[in-house]
Amino acid sequence: MTDATYHLNGGFKPTTKRFADLEGPDFFPTPAWATHALIDNEAFEGEIWESACGNGAMSKVLETVSRTVISSDLYDRGYGDVGIDFLDSHRSVENIVTNPPYNAAEGFVRSGVSLAKRKFALLLRLAFLEGANRARTIFSEHPPSRVWVFSERITFYPAGVSQQGSGTTAYAWFVWDRAAPSRTELKWLKPGYKGRYS
Ligand SMILES: C[S@@+](CC[C@H](N)C(=O)[O-])C[C@H]1O[C@@H](n2cnc3c(N)ncnc32)[C@H](O)[C@@H]1O
Fold first, then answer.
1. How many domains does the chain have?
2. Over pLDDT 70: what percentage of the chain?
3. How far is the CA of 44 from the centre of ligand 1 (A)?
4. In a domain, 95, yes or no
5. Does the CB atom of residue 124 touch ligand 1 within 6 A?
6. 52 lines ligand 1 (CB under 6 A)
7. Which domain holds residue 93?
């Protein structure tokens, strides 16, 4: 889809922005390589809960490193347990990893930091770091332990739509690790994941 309102350097640009993410349930499967970038750099001990699993795109990669991957979603996307609202959950597990609906990202941070006993990892826009409100709340109360910045852009498409072009939005893995000191480390993911795991 082309968003004609999007300009860069004065010209029209095709955009692969997640164009539905300001409303609705926001279903955009994560390309496998973006999850590989996380598990290559962060070790997970024990079970992992993919708490907004969609069609299992991320769960299937997580299953390569953990024998126990719990998958659930609020909506029926054909994978995992259905009807589980992460924002209203009290299930405490070792690790939680997901790409949340962007319009509920703050709520996912709040639930995740209280429910994960070891690590909580969220795939978010890099721009999530900005904003006075988040600076006053999330980032002063619960600063992430590590922020892994993607050096390659991720292209998100709704499930079933064929992929073309490259992304225009920068993403990062935000990791809260109970075993790490309470300061944020900024790290960069090496280029090459996109080609290696696509
Ligand atoms: C951007 S998609 C990502 C899907 C999957 N995590 C992936 O990375 O491929 C976000 C998912 O969050 C689900 N979702 C929305 N609100 C939710 C909630 N409150 N609790 C659990 N899942 C939710 C949507 O149904 C959708 O499948």
1. 1
2. 84
3. 21
4. yes
5. no
6. yes
7. 7-197
Output the six-digit token pair for 2. 């082309």
Yes or no: say if 147 and 129 are a contact pair by the CB < 8 Å rule. yes
Q: Is residue 153 part of a domain?
A: yes
Q: What is the pLDDT of residues 89-148, one digit of tens each?
A: 999 999 999 999 989 999 999 999 999 999 999 999 999 999 999 999 999 999 999 999
From the CB of 30, is ligand 1 less than 6 Å away? yes
Which neighbouring-strand residues pair with 154?
A: none
* Ligand 1, pocket-test mutation among 28, 58, 108, most atoms within 8 A of CB: 28
Cβ–ligand 1 contact at 35 (below 6 Å): no
Q: Is the pLDDT of residue 150 over 90?
A: yes
By DSSP bridging, strand 171-177 and strand 93-98 are unpaired
Q: What are phi and psi of 166, to 5 degrees?
A: -120, 160
Global confidence as pTM: 0.88
* Mean pLDDT, residues 74-99: 97
Q: How far is the CA of 101 from the centre of ligand 1 (A)?
A: 5
- CATH assignment of the domain containing 27: 3.40.50.150
In a domain? residue 2: no
Residue 164's pLDDT band, with cuts at 50, 70 and 90, is: low
